[in-house]
Design brief:
Elements (H helix, E strand, L loop, with lengths): L23 H16 L6 E5 L6 H14 L3 E2 L3 E2 L6 H15 L8 H16 L3 H5 L5 H19 L4 E6 L7 H16 L1 E5 L5 E5 L2 E7 L2 H17 E5 L5 H13 L2 E4 L5 E6 L1 H11 L3 H13 L5 E2 L1 H24 L3 H12 L7 H7 L9 H10 L3 E2 L5 E2 L2 H8 L7
Parallel strand pairs: 1-7, 1-8, 2-4, 3-4, 4-7, 10-11
Antiparallel strand pairs: 5-6, 9-10, 12-13
Helix pairs in contact: 3-4, 3-6, 4-6, 6-7, 7-8, 9-10, 10-11, 10-12, 11-12
Bound molecules: adenosine-5'-triphosphate (ATP) and magnesium ion.
The site of magnesium ion has 3 residues, from helix 2.
Length: 411
């Protein structure tokens, strides 16, 4: 009945998960705000979505772009930037594909064929100096100009919006490349196109263009320190938080009420159900982490073959997942600079009511809270791991569970 190949859970895969939870504010920002405004020619900043590993940044924007693509929008695939790679190459390559979709390749205007040729050079050579020795525009302005042409084509065809998704932006370590990328996208976002409305009235309209950048929290520093105010004016940054338990419960509710449809042996649809106890156990193990939620769900599915996922299935499945769950949290802790790590570990050792800045500082060997104030601030504002308050609390619940309880060991 329950077969491994039928599992709807997808830990770690780079697809839109079938069992989707929460993220309503971000989805609604796209559907009800960003898309309609840009379609109406109004300015709206690009979006930068940051968060610790496994919080669902890539999945969120993948979901938006697949919705957009289904609605007929022109969408780049998720442009994942490997460490140290040249982002302009990736973006240029993707824009050439969109330009094709927009019918620009068939254009006979000399200006457009020349533009396409210069973007082809960027796709081949990127931001590299050999490229800059060539005559013609700087790589970033070639990209901006192509984006503008694609935007004009979208306006002429009257319904699509162009969505660009650059993922793993923290890997753009080359200052010049980052600067060119942000300038190219930012210039296209702020471009104004004269437009004649029905009835003959003239306005200056923004292009139907949306940009999503996703990556680890470090990117805020990189872009902030180097690009400062310009970046902030052109991109709006959101730090993703863990998913609320209520949203995780709701995501599993279809298993409890009507069952999850799977193909039976004789071609009939069959359904896999979940006991409410199993539903709550999965949510408890997940600590708000979407990756752990998928992991616990998958292991519970694999733990038996009957038509009902039980709480025992969840616990015995989790037994095999413990090391992976621990690895997930350790990856986050291991990336922290030593003082930040010491801060969260000290917090964890203290009784929840004692977690004031002064007490944390004292236990870290300082006299005054101000000595570790900036560390606490980074862990809150930049990483979303703690919440400053009186007392400080953990926002990253899996980190808290790992440091303060036996989790992930539940036996
Ligand atoms: N809203 C969601 N509901 C349910 N599962 C989700 C949701 N978002 C992400 N997931 C699952 O969580 C896991 C991690 O998601 P994703 O890869 O998007 O995270 P990420 O933040 O991009 O991580 P990384 O920093 O490692 O790239 C995936 O298995 C994905 O299926
Ligand atoms: Mg990702």
């Amino acid at each position: 009945m329950r077969k491994a190949i039928d599992s709807p859970f997808s830990p770690g895969s780079d697809t839109v998960p079938h069992v989707w939870a929460g993220r309503t504010p971000q989805l609604s920002d796209w559907r009800d705000h960003l898309r309609p405004r840009r379609m109406a020619g109004l300015h709206e900043r690009g979006r930068t979505i940051l968060g610790e590993a496994g919080l669902g940044k890539s999945s969120l924007v993948r979901r938006l772009t697949s919705e957009a693509s289904a609605a007929g929008d022109w969408v780049t695939p998720q442009l994942r930037i490997p460490t140290g790679a040249d982002p302009l190459k990736r973006v240029a390559g993707a824009l050439l594909t969109v330009a094709d979709q927009a019918g620009l390749a068939a254009a006979r205007e000399k200006k457009i064929t020349e533009l396409l040729r210069s973007v082809e050079r960027v796709a081949a050579a990127g931001v590299s100096s050999s490229m800059r020795e060539q005559p013609g525009p700087e790589p970033y302005s070639a990209l901006t100009n192509l984006l503008i042409e694609i935007g004009r084509a979208a306006l002429r065809q009257g319904r699509s919006i162009i969505v660009i998704h650059v993922d793993e932006v923290q890997n753009i370590t080359d200052d010049a490349a980052l600067s060119q990328l942000l300038t190219a996208l930012g210039d296209a976002l702020t471009h104004e196109e004269p437009l004649t409305l029905p009835g003959g009235r003239q306005i200056d309209a923004a292009l139907p263009l949306a940009v999503y950048l996703t990556g680890l929290p470090e990117f805020a520093d990189m872009a902030g320190a180097r690009k400062g105010a310009t970046f902030a004016r052109r991109f709006q940054t959101t730090m993703l938080a863990p998913i609320e338990d209520d949203d995780l419960i709701a995501a599993l509710q279809p298993f409890v009420t009507e069952g999850w449809p799977v193909a039976g042996d004789d071609g009939h649809d069959e359904r896999v159900f979940m006991e409410p106890d199993a539903q709550h156990a999965i949510v408890e193990l997940a600590c708000g982490e979407p990756f752990l939620f998928q992991l616990a769900g998958e292991r519970a599915w694999y733990a038996g073959t009957s038509a009902i996922i039980t709480a025992e299935d969840v616990m015995s499945g989790w037994d095999d997942a413990r090391y992976e769950a621990e690895g997930h949290v350790l990856r986050i802790l291991d990336r922290l600079p030593s003082r930040e790590r010491q801060f969260v570990e000290t917090m964890a050792e203290l009784d929840p009511t004692d977690r004031t800045l002064t007490t944390i500082a004292r236990h870290m060997g300082y006299e005054k809270g101000t000595a570790v104030g900036p560390t606490g601030q980074r862990l809150d504002r930049q990483r979303g791991i703690v919440t400053r308050g009186k007392p400080y609390t953990f926002r990253h619940r899996a980190v808290e569970a790992y440091l303060t309880t036996d989790w992930p060991d539940m036996s």
